[in-house]
Specification:
By secondary structure, the chain is α/β, with parallel strands linked by helices. It has eleven helices and 13 strands. The N terminus and C terminus are likely disordered.
Length: about 375
């Protein structure tokens, strides 16, 4: 088996020891500098409006220094009033000016304070609000899909599963890169930053309550460790893993994976098939792209099909899943269909297609 040394694994684990955290998708993403500039502009507009109101009604104010109020005095009065300083050197003396202070200046003072204090309060309460969102998210998360690795393989796997009806809220992405998790949350998925070989990181992703786990890491040794950890936390979840080297596939199955896909070999076989028959290669590529053209789906046998042969059904049956065995459509052991059988069929993709009910894991070899 071609696996790197354990020192590299240890270094990788130490690197991400304190970086794991949960990030939930946000509907609106706004830069902090934009928020500050927007609130500063609002505060300046309130200040300018107050100064203009005082200057228009300047005859109703008295300045202790010279008795008259010009525009500079109006701006000064607006500043000390909105900031609640109130030196008293400029004061409203007429009934109209005092009424304006009650009905206009005071509400503007409140708005001004809300703008300034609100920025501070938002910063102070952001962590509490985020913790509340995470606790609520954890309490409602059940039977979800955890994707380890959000590279090309992980993205394609999510797109395929979501094309069959899985909601974005039911997907949790785990990756050691914060930038990758930001990209995942931008796409509407919840994310956990951290090393998936560590059990505490997988616990944050609620792996123990997941229905299926997709392992699409960049390295085979990481995939093995993640599979062992995930299987230890969740004995009943369906685990599908991808490896680069075909000789590492048996180790993944021994570690607890229900299905192992050899990415390099699969791509090579598709290339070879396309060379021999470009049309056959196009059909195979169509079959693995869920949601368009032809789709390969698994479904239960309906009562009307019980007692029939696979070729007598309306759908194009490829295989029959009976117990822990996968039998070809022409296998003599199939005989006639039973109510407990499941069929793997090729159907025309439809927009309303939903995820087929979960099947029992295939036997590990």
């Amino acid at each position: 088996m071609k696996l790197p040394g354990h020192d590299a694994i240890a270094r990788q684990a130490d690197e991400h020891l304190v970086t794991h955290r949960v990030k939930l998708p946000k509907k609106v993403v706004e830069r902090p500098i934009q928020q500050v500039l927007r609130r500063l502009l609002m505060a300046l507009l309130v200040l300018a409006a107050t100064a203009l109101i005082v200057w228009i009604d300047r005859d109703g104010y008295n300045d202790n220094s010279d008795g008259s109020v010009d525009f500079l005095d109006a701006a000064y009065y607006a500043t000390v009033t909105l900031s609640t300083t109130g030196y008293g050197d400029i004061a409203p003396v007429s009934d109209g000016a005092r009424l304006t202070n009650i009905l206009v200046i005071t509400p503007l003072r409140v708005v001004f304070l809300i703008i300034l204090v609100g920025t501070t309060l938002e910063v102070l309460t952001e962590r509490t609000r985020e913790e509340w969102r995470q606790n609520r998210w954890r309490s409602t998360l059940r039977d979800h899909t955890v994707v380890i690795g959000f590279g090309t393989k992980g993205r394609s796997a999510i797109q395929t599963v979501c094309a069959t009806g899985l909601k974005q809220e039911q997907v949790v992405v785990v990756d050691p890169s914060a930038k990758v998790i930001e990209a995942a949350t931008a796409d509407g998925f919840a994310g956990v930053v951290g090393d998936a070989t560590r059990s505490e990181v997988l616990v944050r992703a609620e792996v123990q309550r997941a229905r299926q786990i997709i392992i699409a890491t960049q390295r085979d040794d990481t995939a093995v460790l993640v599979t062992l950890t995930a299987r230890q936390l969740n004995r009943g979840a369906k685990i599908v893993a991808a490896v680069r080297e075909e000789e590492n596939a048996p180790l993944l199955k021994q570690s607890g994976a229900d299905a192992v896909i050899t990415s390099a070999s699969a791509a090579g076989r598709l290339l070879g098939l396309s060379v021999l028959s470009p049309a056959a290669g196009m059909v195979m590529e169509d079959l693995i792209q869920q949601g368009s053209g032809l789709d390969m789906v698994e479904r239960p046998v309906i009562k009307a099909e019980v007692g029939k042969k696979p070729r007598e059904t309306d759908d194009l049956v490829v295989s029959v899943v009976r117990g822990h065995r996968v039998l070809g459509y022409d296998d003599p052991a199939v005989g006639t269909l039973q109510l407990t059988d499941r069929l793997i069929t090729i159907v025309r993709a439809s927009p309303g297609a939903q995820i087929a009910p979960d099947v029992r894991p295939m036997p590990r070899q």
